[in-house]
Fold this sequence. Notes:
Layout: E1 9-13, H1 20-30, E2 44-48, E3 50-53, H2 60-64, E4 72-78, E5 83-87, E6 97-100, E7 102-110, E8 116-118, E9 123-126, E10 130-132, E11 141-146, E12 149-155, H3 157-162, E13 166-172, E14 175-179, E15 187-189, E16 195-201, E17 208-214, E18 221-229, E19 236-244, E20 272-274, E21 277-279, E22 289-293, H4 295-298, H5 305-315, E23 320-325, H6 339-352, E24 356-361, H7 370-381, H8 383-391, E25 397-399, H9 408-424, E26 431-434, H10 443-455, E27 461-467, H11 474-486, E28 491-496, E29 499-502, E30 507-509, H12 512-522, E31 525-528, H13 554-561, H14 566-569
Parallel strand pairs: 3-11, 12-18, 22-23, 22-31, 23-24, 24-25, 25-26, 26-27, 27-28, 28-31
Antiparallel strand pairs: 1-2, 2-6, 4-5, 4-7, 7-9, 7-10, 8-15, 9-11, 12-15, 13-14, 13-16, 16-17, 18-19, 20-21, 29-30
Helix pairs in contact: 5-6, 7-9, 9-10, 11-12
Amino acid sequence: MNNRKITIQFLIMERKMITSFLLLLVGLMSCSSDDTPSDPVAQNGNLSLAVTINEDVEEKTSFRQQNEGSGIKINIVDAEGKTVVSYASIEAVPEEIELPAGVYKAKGESNSTAQFGFEDPQYGGSSEDFSIQSEKLTTSSLECKLQNAKVTVGYSDVVKNQFGTYSSVVKSSLGQLAFSQTETRAGYFRASGNLTVTATIGEGDSQLTSEITLTSIQPTTHYAVTVDVEQGSGKLVISVDETILAGGDKGIVITPIEGETRPSYNTSIGFFTKDGKLYDANGMEFIARGVNNGHFWFDSGNRNTAIKGLTPIAAYHSNTVRMVWQTNYVPSQWNNVAETTQLRKMINTAIDKGMVPMIELHDVTGDESKENLLKMAEYFVRPDILGVMKEYESILMINIANEWSGKTTTYRDAYKEAVTMMREAGLKHTIVIDGSGWGQDMTTIFDYGQEIIDNDPQKNILFSVHMYQSYRNETTITSNLEKAVEMKLPLIVGEFGFQHGGTPENPIQIPYKHILAECERLGIGWYAWSWKGNSGGVEYLDLSVDWEGTELTDWGKGIVNDVNGLENTAKKVSVIK
Protein backbone atom coordinates (compact mmCIF):
# COMPACT_ATOMS: atom_id res chain seq x y z
CA MET A 1 0.00 0.00 0.00
CA ASN A 2 1.25 3.52 -0.75
CA ASN A 3 1.65 5.80 2.29
CA ARG A 4 -1.10 4.05 4.18
CA LYS A 5 -0.48 2.48 4.28
CA ILE A 6 -2.02 -13.72 25.62
CA THR A 7 -3.40 -16.46 28.46
CA ILE A 8 -4.68 -13.72 31.31
CA GLN A 9 -8.32 -12.99 31.98
CA PHE A 10 -9.71 -9.51 32.20
CA LEU A 11 -13.10 -8.30 33.25
CA ILE A 12 -13.44 -4.69 32.26
CA MET A 13 -15.62 -2.60 34.46
CA GLU A 14 -16.18 0.99 33.54
CA ARG A 15 -16.51 3.13 36.61
CA LYS A 16 -17.63 6.63 35.84
CA MET A 17 -19.34 8.98 38.20
CA ILE A 18 -19.92 12.29 36.52
CA THR A 19 -22.18 14.93 37.99
CA SER A 20 -24.46 17.14 35.92
CA PHE A 21 -22.14 19.99 36.70
CA LEU A 22 -19.13 18.21 35.24
CA LEU A 23 -21.06 17.23 32.14
CA LEU A 24 -22.02 20.86 31.63
CA LEU A 25 -18.42 21.96 32.23
CA VAL A 26 -17.05 19.47 29.68
CA GLY A 27 -19.65 20.62 27.18
CA LEU A 28 -18.61 24.23 27.62
CA MET A 29 -14.93 23.38 27.33
CA SER A 30 -15.47 21.44 24.12
CA CYS A 31 -16.88 24.52 22.43
CA SER A 32 -13.47 26.21 22.51
CA SER A 33 -10.80 25.01 20.09
CA ASP A 34 -8.14 26.75 22.18
CA ASP A 35 -8.69 24.54 25.20
CA THR A 36 -6.79 21.31 25.66
CA PRO A 37 -9.22 18.40 25.98
CA SER A 38 -9.19 16.62 29.29
CA ASP A 39 -7.75 13.13 29.55
CA PRO A 40 -10.29 10.36 29.19
CA VAL A 41 -11.27 8.41 32.25
CA ALA A 42 -9.05 5.32 32.47
CA GLN A 43 -10.88 2.05 32.05
CA ASN A 44 -9.52 -0.75 34.18
CA GLY A 45 -9.50 -4.48 33.76
CA ASN A 46 -9.29 -7.34 36.21
CA LEU A 47 -6.46 -9.81 35.65
CA SER A 48 -6.77 -13.48 36.55
CA LEU A 49 -3.25 -14.90 36.48
CA ALA A 50 -2.45 -18.64 36.35
CA VAL A 51 1.10 -19.36 37.54
CA THR A 52 2.75 -22.76 37.03
CA ILE A 53 6.14 -24.04 38.13
CA ASN A 54 8.04 -26.14 35.61
CA GLU A 55 9.77 -28.45 38.09
CA ASP A 56 12.24 -31.22 37.47
CA VAL A 57 11.06 -34.40 39.27
CA GLU A 58 14.06 -34.43 41.61
CA GLU A 59 13.39 -30.85 42.66
CA LYS A 60 9.74 -31.07 43.55
CA THR A 61 10.13 -32.25 47.15
CA SER A 62 12.97 -29.94 48.06
CA PHE A 63 11.26 -26.92 46.55
CA ARG A 64 8.01 -27.49 48.41
CA GLN A 65 9.86 -28.03 51.70
CA GLN A 66 11.51 -24.62 51.61
CA ASN A 67 10.79 -22.31 54.49
CA GLU A 68 7.74 -20.13 54.26
CA GLY A 69 8.48 -16.89 52.41
CA SER A 70 11.15 -18.36 50.15
CA GLY A 71 8.82 -19.03 47.22
CA ILE A 72 8.23 -16.94 44.13
CA LYS A 73 7.44 -13.24 44.03
CA ILE A 74 5.05 -12.16 41.24
CA ASN A 75 5.30 -8.73 39.61
CA ILE A 76 3.03 -7.17 37.01
CA VAL A 77 5.15 -4.94 34.76
CA ASP A 78 3.96 -2.32 32.27
CA ALA A 79 5.30 -1.70 28.76
CA GLU A 80 8.00 0.62 30.12
CA GLY A 81 9.29 -2.06 32.48
CA LYS A 82 7.86 -0.47 35.61
CA THR A 83 6.35 -2.73 38.26
CA VAL A 84 2.75 -1.65 38.83
CA VAL A 85 1.81 -4.29 41.39
CA SER A 86 3.77 -6.94 43.29
CA TYR A 87 2.89 -10.01 45.37
CA ALA A 88 5.24 -11.75 47.81
CA SER A 89 4.25 -15.25 46.72
CA ILE A 90 2.09 -17.13 44.25
CA GLU A 91 -0.39 -17.78 47.04
CA ALA A 92 -0.74 -14.04 47.63
CA VAL A 93 -1.94 -13.36 44.08
CA PRO A 94 -5.70 -12.67 44.22
CA GLU A 95 -8.14 -14.16 41.77
CA GLU A 96 -8.47 -10.80 40.08
CA ILE A 97 -5.99 -7.93 39.80
CA GLU A 98 -7.32 -4.57 38.69
CA LEU A 99 -5.13 -2.81 36.12
CA PRO A 100 -5.52 0.19 33.79
CA ALA A 101 -5.82 -0.52 30.07
CA GLY A 102 -2.46 -1.13 28.44
CA VAL A 103 0.18 -3.72 27.65
CA TYR A 104 1.79 -5.72 30.46
CA LYS A 105 3.67 -8.86 31.30
CA ALA A 106 3.84 -10.92 34.48
CA LYS A 107 7.23 -11.76 35.95
CA GLY A 108 8.13 -14.30 38.61
CA GLU A 109 11.34 -14.30 40.60
CA SER A 110 12.58 -16.31 43.54
CA ASN A 111 12.47 -14.75 46.98
CA SER A 112 15.71 -16.60 47.70
CA THR A 113 18.77 -14.49 46.98
CA ALA A 114 21.35 -17.17 47.84
CA GLN A 115 24.11 -17.42 45.24
CA PHE A 116 24.75 -21.08 46.05
CA GLY A 117 23.41 -23.71 48.42
CA PHE A 118 21.98 -27.18 48.81
CA GLU A 119 18.33 -27.74 47.93
CA ASP A 120 17.78 -24.14 46.86
CA PRO A 121 16.22 -24.22 43.37
CA GLN A 122 15.23 -20.71 42.36
CA TYR A 123 12.37 -20.34 39.93
CA GLY A 124 11.38 -17.40 37.80
CA GLY A 125 10.13 -16.45 34.39
CA SER A 126 8.22 -13.98 32.30
CA SER A 127 4.87 -14.28 30.57
CA GLU A 128 4.26 -13.19 27.02
CA ASP A 129 3.11 -9.60 26.67
CA PHE A 130 -0.62 -9.30 27.13
CA SER A 131 -3.08 -6.50 26.63
CA ILE A 132 -6.00 -5.15 28.60
CA GLN A 133 -8.82 -3.97 26.38
CA SER A 134 -11.86 -2.03 27.35
CA GLU A 135 -14.79 -4.34 28.03
CA LYS A 136 -12.78 -7.36 26.91
CA LEU A 137 -12.12 -10.69 28.60
CA THR A 138 -8.59 -11.99 27.93
CA THR A 139 -6.51 -14.89 29.29
CA SER A 140 -2.76 -15.65 29.79
CA SER A 141 -0.36 -17.59 32.02
CA LEU A 142 3.06 -17.39 33.63
CA GLU A 143 5.40 -20.39 33.68
CA CYS A 144 8.30 -20.24 36.14
CA LYS A 145 11.40 -22.26 35.28
CA LEU A 146 14.61 -23.07 37.12
CA GLN A 147 16.88 -20.02 37.01
CA ASN A 148 20.02 -21.40 38.65
CA ALA A 149 22.22 -24.37 37.71
CA LYS A 150 21.70 -27.72 39.38
CA VAL A 151 24.68 -29.90 40.34
CA THR A 152 24.65 -33.47 41.64
CA VAL A 153 27.69 -35.61 42.43
CA GLY A 154 27.69 -39.39 42.26
CA TYR A 155 30.35 -42.06 42.71
CA SER A 156 30.82 -45.24 40.71
CA ASP A 157 30.56 -48.69 42.28
CA VAL A 158 34.34 -49.06 41.90
CA VAL A 159 34.91 -45.98 44.05
CA LYS A 160 32.33 -47.04 46.61
CA ASN A 161 33.65 -50.60 46.90
CA GLN A 162 37.41 -50.00 46.85
CA PHE A 163 37.80 -46.79 48.84
CA GLY A 164 36.73 -46.07 52.36
CA THR A 165 36.75 -42.30 51.96
CA TYR A 166 35.86 -40.07 49.03
CA SER A 167 34.44 -36.59 48.60
CA SER A 168 34.14 -33.73 46.15
CA VAL A 169 34.05 -29.96 46.24
CA VAL A 170 32.16 -27.88 43.68
CA LYS A 171 33.29 -24.28 43.58
CA SER A 172 32.16 -21.16 41.77
CA SER A 173 33.46 -17.62 42.00
CA LEU A 174 30.67 -17.02 44.52
CA GLY A 175 31.36 -19.90 46.91
CA GLN A 176 31.66 -23.66 47.22
CA LEU A 177 29.72 -26.75 48.32
CA ALA A 178 31.27 -29.94 49.74
CA PHE A 179 29.77 -33.24 48.59
CA SER A 180 30.75 -35.92 51.11
CA GLN A 181 30.39 -39.60 50.37
CA THR A 182 27.01 -39.60 52.10
CA GLU A 183 25.73 -36.40 50.46
CA THR A 184 22.66 -37.05 48.29
CA ARG A 185 21.30 -33.52 48.02
CA ALA A 186 21.53 -31.42 44.90
CA GLY A 187 23.52 -28.21 44.93
CA TYR A 188 22.40 -25.05 43.18
CA PHE A 189 24.61 -22.25 41.89
CA ARG A 190 23.90 -18.84 40.42
CA ALA A 191 24.20 -19.33 36.64
CA SER A 192 27.28 -17.16 36.13
CA GLY A 193 30.87 -17.93 35.19
CA ASN A 194 32.53 -21.33 35.70
CA LEU A 195 32.32 -24.24 38.12
CA THR A 196 35.36 -26.20 39.30
CA VAL A 197 34.84 -29.79 40.50
CA THR A 198 37.61 -31.29 42.63
CA ALA A 199 37.31 -34.97 43.61
CA THR A 200 39.41 -36.76 46.22
CA ILE A 201 39.44 -40.50 47.00
CA GLY A 202 41.50 -42.52 49.44
CA GLU A 203 43.86 -41.41 52.19
CA GLY A 204 47.55 -40.92 52.74
CA ASP A 205 49.93 -42.14 50.04
CA SER A 206 47.08 -43.80 48.10
CA GLN A 207 45.05 -40.63 47.86
CA LEU A 208 44.00 -39.57 44.34
CA THR A 209 42.82 -36.13 43.29
CA SER A 210 41.36 -34.86 40.04
CA GLU A 211 39.83 -31.59 38.89
CA ILE A 212 37.61 -30.46 36.03
CA THR A 213 36.20 -27.04 35.05
CA LEU A 214 32.73 -26.45 33.67
CA THR A 215 32.72 -23.23 31.66
CA SER A 216 29.86 -20.75 31.32
CA ILE A 217 27.28 -22.60 33.39
CA GLN A 218 23.68 -22.06 32.32
CA PRO A 219 20.29 -21.85 34.03
CA THR A 220 17.73 -24.65 33.62
CA THR A 221 20.68 -27.04 33.33
CA HIS A 222 21.51 -30.12 35.43
CA TYR A 223 25.22 -30.91 35.66
CA ALA A 224 25.39 -34.56 36.80
CA VAL A 225 28.96 -35.22 37.97
CA THR A 226 30.25 -38.80 38.22
CA VAL A 227 33.52 -39.71 39.92
CA ASP A 228 35.13 -42.96 38.76
CA VAL A 229 38.45 -44.80 38.56
CA GLU A 230 39.65 -45.72 35.10
CA GLN A 231 40.18 -49.45 34.70
CA GLY A 232 43.77 -50.48 33.99
CA SER A 233 45.42 -47.14 34.75
CA GLY A 234 43.76 -46.57 38.12
CA LYS A 235 43.42 -42.91 37.18
CA LEU A 236 40.72 -40.84 38.88
CA VAL A 237 38.25 -39.60 36.27
CA ILE A 238 35.50 -36.99 36.56
CA SER A 239 32.75 -36.98 33.91
CA VAL A 240 29.81 -34.61 33.55
CA ASP A 241 26.48 -35.27 31.88
CA GLU A 242 24.97 -31.91 30.98
CA THR A 243 21.19 -32.02 30.56
CA ILE A 244 18.85 -29.17 29.67
CA LEU A 245 15.94 -29.36 32.09
CA ALA A 246 12.33 -28.83 31.10
CA GLY A 247 11.89 -25.37 29.63
CA GLY A 248 15.61 -24.87 29.10
CA ASP A 249 15.64 -24.61 25.32
CA LYS A 250 15.30 -21.07 24.05
CA GLY A 251 15.18 -19.22 20.77
CA ILE A 252 14.58 -20.91 17.45
CA VAL A 253 14.46 -24.66 17.91
CA ILE A 254 14.25 -27.07 15.00
CA THR A 255 13.21 -30.46 16.35
CA PRO A 256 12.50 -33.84 14.75
CA ILE A 257 8.74 -33.74 15.21
CA GLU A 258 6.23 -35.33 12.89
CA GLY A 259 5.68 -32.70 10.24
CA GLU A 260 5.41 -32.51 6.48
CA THR A 261 8.48 -33.85 4.70
CA ARG A 262 10.59 -31.18 3.04
CA PRO A 263 10.79 -31.81 -0.74
CA SER A 264 14.17 -33.07 -1.93
CA TYR A 265 14.65 -30.05 -4.21
CA ASN A 266 14.27 -27.63 -1.32
CA THR A 267 17.52 -27.19 0.58
CA SER A 268 16.49 -24.30 2.82
CA ILE A 269 16.71 -24.59 6.60
CA GLY A 270 13.64 -22.36 6.97
CA PHE A 271 10.13 -22.13 5.58
CA PHE A 272 9.11 -24.05 2.47
CA THR A 273 5.96 -24.33 0.35
CA LYS A 274 4.37 -27.54 -0.88
CA ASP A 275 1.06 -28.26 -2.59
CA GLY A 276 -0.18 -24.73 -1.97
CA LYS A 277 0.68 -24.61 1.74
CA LEU A 278 3.41 -22.94 3.80
CA TYR A 279 5.44 -25.01 6.28
CA ASP A 280 8.02 -24.02 8.88
CA ALA A 281 11.40 -25.67 9.38
CA ASN A 282 9.80 -28.44 11.43
CA GLY A 283 7.39 -29.26 8.62
CA MET A 284 4.46 -27.84 10.57
CA GLU A 285 1.94 -25.82 8.57
CA PHE A 286 2.15 -22.12 9.36
CA ILE A 287 -0.91 -19.94 8.79
CA ALA A 288 0.06 -16.29 9.15
CA ARG A 289 -2.04 -14.11 11.40
CA GLY A 290 -0.47 -10.71 11.77
CA VAL A 291 -0.22 -7.04 10.90
CA ASN A 292 1.92 -4.64 8.86
CA ASN A 293 4.31 -2.27 10.66
CA GLY A 294 6.08 0.78 9.17
CA HIS A 295 9.65 0.34 10.42
CA PHE A 296 11.47 2.34 7.77
CA TRP A 297 9.22 5.33 8.28
CA PHE A 298 9.10 5.41 12.08
CA ASP A 299 12.32 3.90 13.44
CA SER A 300 14.76 6.46 11.99
CA GLY A 301 16.51 9.09 14.10
CA ASN A 302 16.89 6.58 16.93
CA ARG A 303 13.14 6.76 17.53
CA ASN A 304 12.57 3.02 17.09
CA THR A 305 8.87 3.73 17.41
CA ALA A 306 7.80 0.83 15.22
CA ILE A 307 10.20 -1.54 16.98
CA LYS A 308 8.60 -0.58 20.30
CA GLY A 309 5.24 -1.27 18.66
CA LEU A 310 6.21 -4.92 18.24
CA THR A 311 5.55 -5.48 21.94
CA PRO A 312 1.81 -4.67 21.81
CA ILE A 313 1.51 -6.27 18.36
CA ALA A 314 2.65 -9.54 19.90
CA ALA A 315 0.49 -8.94 22.96
CA TYR A 316 -2.56 -8.78 20.71
CA HIS A 317 -1.69 -12.32 19.50
CA SER A 318 0.01 -11.72 16.13
CA ASN A 319 2.17 -14.69 15.16
CA THR A 320 3.95 -12.73 12.42
CA VAL A 321 4.65 -9.17 11.31
CA ARG A 322 5.27 -7.71 7.83
CA MET A 323 8.00 -5.11 8.22
CA VAL A 324 8.16 -2.12 5.86
CA TRP A 325 11.66 -1.31 4.61
CA GLN A 326 13.26 0.64 1.76
CA THR A 327 16.59 0.62 -0.07
CA ASN A 328 17.46 4.30 0.46
CA TYR A 329 18.86 3.95 3.96
CA VAL A 330 21.05 6.91 4.95
CA PRO A 331 23.01 6.22 8.18
CA SER A 332 23.15 9.91 9.13
CA GLN A 333 19.35 9.87 9.38
CA TRP A 334 19.58 6.89 11.73
CA ASN A 335 22.09 8.31 14.23
CA ASN A 336 24.88 6.76 12.14
CA VAL A 337 23.67 3.26 12.97
CA ALA A 338 24.73 0.78 10.30
CA GLU A 339 21.83 -0.54 8.23
CA THR A 340 22.72 -4.14 9.05
CA THR A 341 22.63 -3.31 12.77
CA GLN A 342 19.18 -1.76 12.43
CA LEU A 343 17.88 -4.70 10.43
CA ARG A 344 19.15 -7.20 12.98
CA LYS A 345 17.57 -5.20 15.80
CA MET A 346 14.23 -5.15 13.99
CA ILE A 347 14.27 -8.86 13.12
CA ASN A 348 15.57 -9.99 16.50
CA THR A 349 12.87 -8.04 18.34
CA ALA A 350 10.13 -9.73 16.29
CA ILE A 351 11.63 -13.15 17.00
CA ASP A 352 12.04 -12.38 20.71
CA LYS A 353 8.33 -11.50 20.79
CA GLY A 354 7.46 -14.86 19.22
CA MET A 355 6.60 -13.54 15.75
CA VAL A 356 7.77 -14.59 12.30
CA PRO A 357 9.39 -11.58 10.57
CA MET A 358 8.70 -10.82 6.92
CA ILE A 359 10.70 -7.98 5.38
CA GLU A 360 9.31 -6.10 2.38
CA LEU A 361 10.70 -3.31 0.20
CA HIS A 362 8.34 -0.38 -0.42
CA ASP A 363 10.40 1.54 -3.02
CA VAL A 364 8.60 0.46 -6.21
CA THR A 365 4.99 0.53 -5.05
CA GLY A 366 2.82 0.84 -8.19
CA ASP A 367 5.87 0.86 -10.48
CA GLU A 368 5.77 -1.19 -13.71
CA SER A 369 9.45 -1.15 -14.71
CA LYS A 370 11.27 -4.47 -14.83
CA GLU A 371 14.56 -2.71 -14.17
CA ASN A 372 13.23 -1.19 -10.96
CA LEU A 373 11.98 -4.55 -9.70
CA LEU A 374 15.39 -6.06 -10.33
CA LYS A 375 16.91 -3.27 -8.24
CA MET A 376 14.95 -4.69 -5.30
CA ALA A 377 16.47 -8.12 -5.87
CA GLU A 378 19.89 -6.48 -6.18
CA TYR A 379 19.40 -4.95 -2.74
CA PHE A 380 18.86 -8.35 -1.14
CA VAL A 381 22.02 -9.78 -2.77
CA ARG A 382 24.18 -6.82 -1.77
CA PRO A 383 26.94 -8.46 0.33
CA ASP A 384 26.11 -6.75 3.65
CA ILE A 385 22.35 -7.26 3.31
CA LEU A 386 22.84 -10.79 1.97
CA GLY A 387 24.74 -11.68 5.14
CA VAL A 388 21.85 -10.53 7.33
CA MET A 389 19.27 -12.37 5.26
CA LYS A 390 21.23 -15.63 5.41
CA GLU A 391 21.69 -15.24 9.15
CA TYR A 392 17.92 -15.54 9.62
CA GLU A 393 17.13 -18.12 6.96
CA SER A 394 15.49 -20.43 9.50
CA ILE A 395 12.73 -17.93 10.37
CA LEU A 396 12.66 -14.96 7.93
CA MET A 397 10.48 -14.55 4.83
CA ILE A 398 11.42 -12.06 2.09
CA ASN A 399 8.77 -10.02 0.24
CA ILE A 400 10.75 -8.74 -2.77
CA ALA A 401 8.69 -5.65 -3.52
CA ASN A 402 5.49 -4.12 -2.24
CA GLU A 403 2.81 -3.83 -4.93
CA TRP A 404 5.15 -3.75 -7.93
CA SER A 405 2.67 -3.69 -10.80
CA GLY A 406 4.27 -5.00 -13.96
CA LYS A 407 1.69 -6.35 -16.39
CA THR A 408 1.29 -9.71 -18.17
CA THR A 409 4.55 -11.26 -19.34
CA THR A 410 6.59 -8.39 -17.91
CA TYR A 411 5.37 -9.51 -14.48
CA ARG A 412 6.31 -13.12 -15.23
CA ASP A 413 9.73 -12.43 -16.70
CA ALA A 414 10.77 -9.83 -14.15
CA TYR A 415 9.94 -12.05 -11.19
CA LYS A 416 11.58 -15.10 -12.75
CA GLU A 417 14.76 -13.09 -13.21
CA ALA A 418 14.58 -11.55 -9.71
CA VAL A 419 14.07 -14.95 -8.05
CA THR A 420 16.93 -16.47 -10.06
CA MET A 421 19.26 -13.64 -8.99
CA MET A 422 18.41 -14.20 -5.32
CA ARG A 423 18.75 -17.99 -5.51
CA GLU A 424 22.11 -17.79 -7.24
CA ALA A 425 23.30 -15.57 -4.39
CA GLY A 426 22.37 -18.29 -1.90
CA LEU A 427 19.03 -17.00 -0.59
CA LYS A 428 16.84 -20.07 -0.03
CA HIS A 429 14.11 -18.34 1.95
CA THR A 430 10.42 -18.37 1.13
CA ILE A 431 10.13 -15.47 -1.33
CA VAL A 432 6.87 -13.53 -1.23
CA ILE A 433 5.54 -12.02 -4.48
CA ASP A 434 2.70 -9.47 -4.54
CA GLY A 435 0.02 -9.48 -7.19
CA SER A 436 0.06 -6.80 -9.90
CA GLY A 437 -2.22 -3.74 -9.98
CA TRP A 438 -1.08 -2.30 -6.65
CA GLY A 439 -1.25 -5.79 -5.20
CA GLN A 440 -4.94 -6.25 -5.95
CA ASP A 441 -4.84 -8.01 -9.34
CA MET A 442 -4.59 -11.77 -8.98
CA THR A 443 -4.76 -12.36 -12.73
CA THR A 444 -0.97 -12.38 -13.01
CA ILE A 445 -0.76 -14.85 -10.13
CA PHE A 446 -3.25 -17.20 -11.78
CA ASP A 447 -1.71 -16.82 -15.25
CA TYR A 448 1.97 -17.05 -14.35
CA GLY A 449 2.21 -18.23 -10.73
CA GLN A 450 2.95 -21.87 -11.47
CA GLU A 451 5.50 -20.93 -14.13
CA ILE A 452 7.31 -18.69 -11.63
CA ILE A 453 7.31 -21.53 -9.09
CA ASP A 454 8.58 -24.06 -11.62
CA ASN A 455 11.41 -21.72 -12.61
CA ASP A 456 12.55 -21.51 -8.97
CA PRO A 457 15.01 -24.32 -8.10
CA GLN A 458 13.79 -24.16 -4.48
CA LYS A 459 10.12 -23.97 -5.55
CA ASN A 460 9.65 -21.83 -2.50
CA ILE A 461 7.30 -19.02 -3.56
CA LEU A 462 4.42 -17.52 -1.58
CA PHE A 463 2.07 -15.18 -3.48
CA SER A 464 0.31 -12.24 -1.85
CA VAL A 465 -2.86 -10.34 -2.71
CA HIS A 466 -3.81 -6.97 -1.21
CA MET A 467 -7.55 -6.67 -0.67
CA TYR A 468 -8.86 -3.13 -0.84
CA GLN A 469 -11.59 -1.57 -3.01
CA SER A 470 -11.28 -4.23 -5.72
CA TYR A 471 -12.62 -6.65 -3.12
CA ARG A 472 -15.69 -4.76 -2.03
CA ASN A 473 -17.89 -7.79 -2.87
CA GLU A 474 -17.88 -11.01 -0.86
CA THR A 475 -18.22 -13.12 -4.01
CA THR A 476 -15.02 -11.61 -5.44
CA ILE A 477 -13.15 -12.42 -2.25
CA THR A 478 -14.38 -16.00 -2.13
CA SER A 479 -13.89 -16.80 -5.81
CA ASN A 480 -10.29 -15.53 -5.88
CA LEU A 481 -9.23 -17.25 -2.68
CA GLU A 482 -10.88 -20.50 -3.68
CA LYS A 483 -9.24 -20.43 -7.11
CA ALA A 484 -5.77 -20.07 -5.54
CA VAL A 485 -6.47 -23.06 -3.30
CA GLU A 486 -7.77 -25.14 -6.22
CA MET A 487 -4.66 -24.30 -8.25
CA LYS A 488 -2.44 -25.09 -5.23
CA LEU A 489 -0.80 -21.69 -5.43
CA PRO A 490 0.56 -20.75 -1.97
CA LEU A 491 -1.17 -17.51 -1.00
CA ILE A 492 -1.53 -14.95 1.74
CA VAL A 493 -3.58 -11.77 1.99
CA GLY A 494 -0.62 -9.46 2.56
CA GLU A 495 -2.67 -6.31 3.19
CA PHE A 496 -6.32 -5.39 3.63
CA GLY A 497 -8.50 -2.80 5.32
CA PHE A 498 -12.11 -2.26 6.29
CA GLN A 499 -12.48 0.59 3.78
CA HIS A 500 -10.45 2.28 1.07
CA GLY A 501 -11.03 4.45 -1.96
CA GLY A 502 -14.15 6.32 -2.93
CA THR A 503 -14.63 9.77 -1.47
CA PRO A 504 -14.40 11.08 2.09
CA GLU A 505 -18.18 11.42 2.05
CA ASN A 506 -18.73 7.97 0.55
CA PRO A 507 -15.74 5.68 1.20
CA ILE A 508 -15.76 2.17 -0.25
CA GLN A 509 -16.39 -0.42 2.41
CA ILE A 510 -14.52 -3.72 2.31
CA PRO A 511 -16.18 -6.74 3.98
CA TYR A 512 -13.07 -7.53 5.97
CA LYS A 513 -14.83 -9.95 8.30
CA HIS A 514 -15.61 -12.03 5.24
CA ILE A 515 -11.89 -11.97 4.38
CA LEU A 516 -11.13 -13.23 7.89
CA ALA A 517 -13.77 -15.94 7.68
CA GLU A 518 -12.74 -17.19 4.24
CA CYS A 519 -9.05 -17.20 5.15
CA GLU A 520 -9.87 -19.27 8.21
CA ARG A 521 -12.01 -21.68 6.22
CA LEU A 522 -9.41 -22.10 3.48
CA GLY A 523 -6.29 -22.04 5.66
CA ILE A 524 -4.87 -18.83 4.16
CA GLY A 525 -2.66 -16.43 6.09
CA TRP A 526 -3.25 -12.69 6.39
CA TYR A 527 -1.64 -9.40 7.49
CA ALA A 528 -3.92 -6.45 8.34
CA TRP A 529 -2.82 -2.92 7.35
CA SER A 530 -1.45 -1.44 9.61
CA TRP A 531 -0.48 -0.96 13.23
CA LYS A 532 -0.05 2.83 13.35
CA GLY A 533 1.19 5.87 11.45
CA ASN A 534 -1.15 6.08 8.44
CA SER A 535 -1.56 9.51 6.87
CA GLY A 536 -2.74 11.22 3.69
CA GLY A 537 -6.42 10.64 4.35
CA VAL A 538 -6.21 6.98 5.34
CA GLU A 539 -5.57 7.49 9.04
CA TYR A 540 -8.64 5.34 9.60
CA LEU A 541 -6.48 2.29 8.78
CA ASP A 542 -4.56 2.61 12.05
CA LEU A 543 -5.24 -0.50 14.13
CA SER A 544 -4.12 1.21 17.33
CA VAL A 545 -4.77 4.68 18.71
CA ASP A 546 -1.13 4.87 19.87
CA TRP A 547 2.08 2.96 19.21
CA GLU A 548 1.96 1.45 22.70
CA GLY A 549 -1.35 -0.26 22.00
CA THR A 550 -3.09 1.10 25.09
CA GLU A 551 -6.27 1.47 23.03
CA LEU A 552 -7.31 -0.12 19.76
CA THR A 553 -9.39 1.59 17.11
CA ASP A 554 -12.65 -0.06 16.07
CA TRP A 555 -10.73 -1.45 13.07
CA GLY A 556 -8.11 -2.86 15.44
CA LYS A 557 -10.71 -4.33 17.77
CA GLY A 558 -12.26 -6.16 14.84
CA ILE A 559 -8.92 -7.61 13.75
CA VAL A 560 -8.09 -8.75 17.27
CA ASN A 561 -11.45 -9.79 18.69
CA ASP A 562 -13.49 -11.12 15.78
CA VAL A 563 -14.33 -14.80 15.94
CA ASN A 564 -11.80 -15.22 13.11
CA GLY A 565 -9.43 -12.56 14.42
CA LEU A 566 -6.00 -12.73 15.99
CA GLU A 567 -7.05 -13.76 19.47
CA ASN A 568 -9.12 -16.69 18.30
CA THR A 569 -7.10 -18.04 15.36
CA ALA A 570 -3.40 -17.12 15.63
CA LYS A 571 -1.08 -20.03 16.46
CA LYS A 572 2.60 -19.49 17.12
CA VAL A 573 5.11 -21.00 14.70
CA SER A 574 6.58 -24.24 16.05
CA VAL A 575 10.24 -23.15 15.76
CA ILE A 576 9.90 -20.30 18.26
CA LYS A 577 9.41 -21.31 21.88
